[in-house]
Design brief:
The protein is mainly α and 323 residues long. It folds into 2 domains: 16-222, Cation efflux protein transmembrane domain (Alpha-lytic protease prodomain-like, Up-down Bundle), CATH 1.20.1510.10; 228-319, Alpha-Beta Plaits (2-Layer Sandwich). The protein has helices at residues 20-50, 53-79, 94-123, 130-157, 161-190, 195-222, 228-245, 275-292, 309-319, and strands at 248-256, 261-269, 297-305. The protein has a 3-stranded mixed sheet, with helices on one face. Strand 2 (261-269), helix 8 (275-292) and strand 3 (297-305) form a beta-alpha-beta unit.
C-alpha cells in the first residue's frame, strides 16, 4: 500500500508567514538588498574619487549582486508558498535554480572584472585620491564580510539554500573589496600602478571559482544527487527506529528540495499482520524519522509483505509494471 500525501497535509510547506524560519530568512534577504544598494553607492563614489579600475570592477560586481539578490528574494517568496493542485510538492526546488542563477551572476561579475581591469591597464592607468577611496572600499568590505557571515549562518539555521547562496555571494563581494584594498595599498606604497589591475584580476579568479561551486550545487540539486552522508544518516536513524518498533525496511530513496528532504522507504511486515496494525507502525516511523533528522523531512512509506516482496519486485522489474 502506498500512501500519497495531500497538499493540505501539515508536512507540506505552510504559507509564507506561517513559519518563523521563513520570517528570519525574509528579514535577512531584505537586509542583504538594502546593504547591496548601500555598497553600490559607496563603491561608485570611490571610483569617481580615484579612477581605479579595481574599484570600478568592484562596483560592477555590486551591480550584479543587487540583481542577484532581487531574484533570490523572488525565489524565497515563491519557495515559501504552499503546495497547489498543479504543484503538489510546492515550489521549494526553485532554491536550486536561484543558487545556479546566483552562481552565474558571480561568474559574470568575475569575467567583467577581468575584462575591465585589462581594458583600463591597456588604456593607461590614471589614479588619484587613493587614500579616501581606499577607506570607502574598506568600510564596504568590512560590512559585507559581517553581512555575508550572517546570511550564511542564517541560511544554514533555517535550511535555506537560497539565503546561504546569497551569503556566499556577499562574502565573495567582500573578498573582491579586500583584494582591491590590497592593490590600492601596494600602489600607494610603491607607486607602481599596475598593482591595481593585477590584484583585481587575481580576486576575480577567486570569485569565479566560488560561482562555479554554487552552480555545481544547483546542478546536483536539480538532478536529485543523493548525498552519501545524508543517505548514511537516514539509514542509521531508520535502523534504530525500525529495530525499536519491530519492522524491517528496504528501498530507501531520498531527494532534497532546498528546504526539506523527501524520503521514501518500503516497510516489510509478516503477511498475516492486520492492515490497521501495519498502518499504525508505518505512521509511527513517518513521525519519528523527521524528529531524528537535522532538517525538515517528509516520509512516504510503502507497505509490503516480507514473505514475497522480492518476488513481486522481480516481476515488476521484468515486466516493467506492477503485477
Amino acid at each position: 500500500m502506498t500512501e500519497e500525501p495531500s497538499p493540505a497535509l501539515p508536512s507540506q510547506p505552510p504559507a509564507a508567514g506561517g513559519r518563523p524560519e521563513y520570517n528570519d530568512a525574509w528579514f535577512a534577504m531584505q537586509l542583504s538588498l538594502l546593504f547591496g544598494l548601500l555598497m553600490l553607492a559607496g563603491k561608485t563614489t570611490a571610483y569617481f574619487l580615484t579612477g581605479s579600475s579595481a574599484i570600478l570592477a568592484d562596483a560592477a560586481e555590486s551591480i550584479v549582486h543587487v540583481v542577484a539578490v532581487g531574484f533570490a528574494a523572488f525565489s524565497l517568496r515563491l519557495g515559501a508558498k504552499p503546495a497547489a493542485p498543479n504543484f503538489l510538492y510546492g515550489y521549494e526546488r526553485i532554491s536550486f535554480f536561484s543558487a545556479g542563477f546566483e552562481g552565474a551572476m558571480i561568474m559574470l561579475a568575475a569575467i567583467t572584472i577581468i575584462v575591465m581591469a585589462i581594458r583600463e591597464w591597456l588604456s593607461g592607468l590614471r589614479l588619484g585620491n587613493l587614500g579616501a577611496g581606499t577607506l570607502l572600499v574598506l568600510g564596504a568590505a568590512i560590512l559585507n564580510a559581517v553581512l555575508g557571515w550572517y546570511l550564511v549562518m542564517t541560511g544554514r539555521r533555517v535550511h535555506s539554500l537560497i539565503l546561504e547562496a546569497n551569503g556566499r555571494h556577499v562574502l565573495a563581494d567582500s573578498w573582491t573589496s579586500f583584494g582591491v584594498i590590497g592593490g590600492l595599498v601596494l600602489v600607494i606604497l610603491t607607486g607602481w600602478k599596475p598593482f591595481d589591475p593585477l590584484i583585481a584580476i587575481a580576486v576575480a579568479l577567486h570569485i569565479l571559482w566560488s560561482g562555479a561551486r554554487l552552480i555545481g550545487r544547483s546542478v546536483r540539486g536539480l538532478l536529485d544527487y543523493s548525498d552519501p552522508h545524508a543517505g548514511h544518516l537516514i539509514r542509521q536513524k531508520l535502523d534504530a527506529i525500525c529495530s525499536e518498533v519491530g519492522v524491517a525496511y528496504h528501498g530507501v530513496r531520498f531527494r532534497h528540495t532546498g528546504y526539506r528532504q523527501l524520503i521514501e522507504v518500503h516497510l516489510l511486515f509478516p503477511r498475516q499482520t492486520p492492515l490497521g496494525d501495519a498502518h499504525r507502525v508505518a505512521t509511527l516511523v513517518e513521525e519519528r524519522l523527521p524528529a531524528e533528522l537535522a532538517m525538515p523531512a517528509e516520509i512516504i512509506t510503502h507497505l509490503e509483505s516480507v514473505e514475497d516482496h522480492e518476488e513481486v519486485h522481480a516481476r515488476e522489474h521484468y515486466t516493467g509494471r506492477p503485477q
